[in-house]
Amino acid sequence: MLKISDLTKKFGAFQALNVGQIDIPRGQVTGIVGPNGAGKTTLFNTVGGAFRPDTGQVMLDGTDITGLPPHKLAEQGLVRTFQISRDLGALTILENLLLARPGQLGESITASLFSRARIRAEEENAVEQARTLLERVDLWRLADQSAANLSGGQKKLLEVLRAMMLSPKVILLDEPAAGVAPTMEGVLADFILSLKAEGVTFAIVEHDMEMIERLCDSVYVMTEGREMMHGSFHEVTSDPRVLEAYLGSMV
Ligand SMILES: Nc1ncnc2c1ncn2[C@@H]1O[C@H](COP(=O)(O)OP(=O)(O)OP(=O)(O)O)[C@@H](O)[C@H]1O
Ligand SMILES: [Mg+2]
Fold it and tell me: Which GO molecular-function terms appear in the entry (predicted)?
């Protein structure tokens, strides 16, 4: 589904990213782990349109999407969430989901040229989509409350819901479980697996190894900007090179 080849990114003289080949297979959840500073977020930033890569190629479902900005990527079916939850401000939970869809709610000049009935229909559609998503994670009852009041875990869940508003083929999740209480972690994991069962493809950066074990069909280990190993959860966690990479990063 997503093929990342020879992707590099430098910050000044520092080579933050230098991967050979990373494949994210259709309908699977692929984990990306590695010590702090290994380049995992930089990988997502470079694939997800925050930065242009210096070299390399990213293919999504057979289409070259290298260097496209986030809104173009979303049109192609790729969205990402962020390591640090965004400030959700004074918006309600429902508004947060509605605003995740681009060009909505009669904002644009072109939209205002359409009939009111059509804009209305689009809005109702979006609300229906948001409602269905919120009901699945038992947040619909809170839809009109300020998103600022949500727990850390609920905010992470909301990020996944926002991504789903774009009906993506692939979602890149950057540390979805960071700062999430154990019960919410279970809710989040079950939700991700239910989306997988519907055919959504995931790549997940995560330090929580229980989450990785529970969710991932296979796992890449990154160190120093490179993918050093790929295998099952058991294979990568029993490999001495992986242990060394983690220990090495602590000294
Ligand atoms: N915008 C940037 N400008 C300069 N250096 C950066 C930038 N973003 C990341 N880096 C550097 O690139 C390296 C990789 O960072 P990155 O955030 O990708 O690591 P990570 O694997 O996501 O780590 P963590 O597990 O702590 O989130 C680090 O040394 C970091 O300081
Ligand atoms: Mg990171």
Answer: ATP binding
